[in-house]
C-alpha cells in the first residue's frame, strides 16, 4: 500500500518510510452502509513514536469499503476531508468555552471542555498498482458509538460544541447520527490507566459525505 492522503511534502519525496498494520478481520468494531471498521495495531515508521507506547505501536480504527464504486468514492472522499481538516481540530486544549446555537441563545450555555473534535488521522492508503483490495483509512481509535445510549444534557452540549467548532472551521460532516459520535474515558492528556468516564472524551467520525 502507498499513502495517498495526506499528500507528502515535496521535500520528502524519495524518502519513503514504511509502517506496518496488524489487522485481524475478527476484530470488527462496526459496519456501515458501505464500509467495515476493524481494530488494528499500527507500527509507526521510524523515527515517529507514540507518547504512551514505547514500542511505537498505536491502536487504530482501520476502515475498508465493502465493494462497489460508490463505496470506494465515499472512502476516498473521507480520506480527502480528513487530510484537509485543520490540525487544531485534532489537538487537545486546556480550558472551556460556550457555544450558543444560532437562533436559540439559551442552548449550550454551560462551558464545555475544549478537546479534539475528530480522531487523529494516520492516512488514507491505496493498494500498489496492479494489486487488488480495498483502500484503507487509518484513524485514532476513539472508543464506542453513542448509538443506543441515553445522553445527559452535558453530553449533548459537548457534542453540539464539536459540531459548532467543525462548522466554524468551514467543514460539514454530512451524517449527523449518534452512530457517528464516539465516546471514551478521558482526559487523553493523562496515561490510559488514569482515565475515567467521569471525564469523557468525544469525537465526530464518518466524513464519507463530508465537505
Brief overview, please?
The chain has 2 helices and 11 strands.
Structure overview:
With 211 residues, this protein is an alpha+beta fold. The chain has a single domain, classed as Phosphorylase Kinase, domain 1 (2-Layer Sandwich). The protein has helices at 69-84, 153-168; strands spanning 2-5, 20-31, 35-43, 57-65, 96-97, 112-113, 121-126, 136-140, 144-145, 181-186, 196-204. 27% of the residues are buried.
CATH class: Alpha Beta
H and E order: EEEEHEEEEEHEE
In the CATH hierarchy, what is the superfamily?
Phosphorylase Kinase, domain 1
Mean pLDDT: 84
Query: Tally of extended strands?
Result: 11
Helical content class: 10-25%
Measured by DSSP, the beta-strand proportion falls in 25-35%
Taking the alpha carbons of the first and last residues, their distance comes to 25 Å
What's the Cα radius of gyration? 18 Å
**CATH 2nd-level architecture:** 2-Layer Sandwich
CATH topology: Phosphorylase Kinase, domain 1
- Reading side by side through the largest sheet, how are the strands ordered? 1-7-8-4-3-2
Helix and strand content put the structural class at alpha+beta
Largest sheet descriptor: 6 strands, antiparallel
Shape assignment:
globular
| Number of H- or I-type helical stretches | 2
Low-pLDDT regions:
none
Number of domains: 1
Protein name: Protein kinase domain-containing protein
InterPro entries: Kinase-like_dom_sf
